Amino acid sequence: MIFDSSVDRGNEESWWSLGQIERLNGQLDQVAADGKKGRELDPDSAGVHILLSQVYLMQGRPRDALPEIERIRYASYRVCLYALAYHALGREKDSDAALSELMKYHASSAFEIVAVYAFRSQPDKAFEWLDRAYAQHDLNLNWTKVDPLLKNSRSDPRYAAFLKKLNLPN
Fold first, then answer.
1. Which of 115, 116, 137, 161 sits 20 to 30 Å CA-CA off 152?
2. 81 and 1, same structural domain?
3. What whole-number distance in Å separates Cα of residue 61 and Cα of residue 13?
4. How many domains does the chain fold into?
């Protein structure tokens, strides 16, 4: 996540960090509660809106994710999350349009494109973009093993091979 260090957030970043740990541990109700606390401290926090959007999507609440997504000021994260939410809502044309918009940021958002394809259960495209992210040295690859949005890819044999490529244990 990218944060504007010129904004005084008080404890918002602490709530975001706690929420990330809880999200990775599947404690989704707690993440939502902690994310809301972070949002109270800084209503403009991109990190908190991203976190809450992800949690609502993981909870099967894509309609609740939409208002959070609208408040994200980083275009690549916003369109990534729209692609996920629209897919979850069965709005495939809108999901495809958001993914097409995300593709404009491919040089810096390859991992987000991976997340969309993995979430949409499109493994060939997900692994194609994982290779692109690897070639681009995408910093978000550090989330490959733990990001819940990639769970649909974990049973694919290419996933274990990719973790090995990253020197991560399976």
1. 137
2. yes
3. 24
4. 2
